[in-house]
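pinging the channel bc i need a second pair of eyes. not urgent but kinda urgent?? the chain im working w is below, pasted from the shared doc
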Amino acid sequence: MSRIEATAQVIADRFGARIRRIPALPRELAIEVAAPDLLEVCTELRDRPELAFEQLTDLSGIDYFDHGRAEWITAAATATGFSRGVAREQPRTDTAGRRFAVVMHLLSVSRNVRLRLRCWCPPGEPPMVDSVTGIWASADWYEREAFDLFGILFRGHPDLRRILTDYGFIGHPFRKDFPLGGNVEVRYDPARGRVVYEPVTLEPRVNQPKVIRADTGRPVPEPRADG
């Protein structure tokens, strides 16, 4: 039995229904844990000697908004070009009713094993899960980043505030429904002698994929309406 499968068996025997193994690439191990069980499971993943995940190497938020719903059928694009987005396909059902999740990457240095752990935020706004900074101190800035970019709150975080965007930034830019042009523009006003925030003046545009012209077979940009 491989080290990955041996670890998966230990996790399944220890946690039972509290965790669920989810699909992953070959030689990778990924599990899912419910939000109420997050802290207890993470503590045991760190402390039990047969698991010993001493390090959290990464943490990120994920927005599954419209996950699996396609506007463009691009898999079969050849000399005929890309399809035009007219009607959207139905979204995947495995994420129905759930939008935000937190994913952690854990490392057992002593056992040379890695583990990916996903925890869904309970429905509602704002999305919220417990902070794991009390288990792995390295989660501190990662959780601040997930809060800043996705708006996910981490209950019990010692200093949850923005870390990448400006203090006056509005919204969370990695959310799938965040406008491409943002919500405000920032510029320096010489008359006021300071930076000012103003409503966005750019007109929103929908991104268009490239098309392939029948005469050359080379991809060229789609013509823009504004020239």
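so The CA atoms of residues 172 and 178 lie 7 Å apart. and The mean pLDDT is 83. — does that match what u expected or am i reading it wrong
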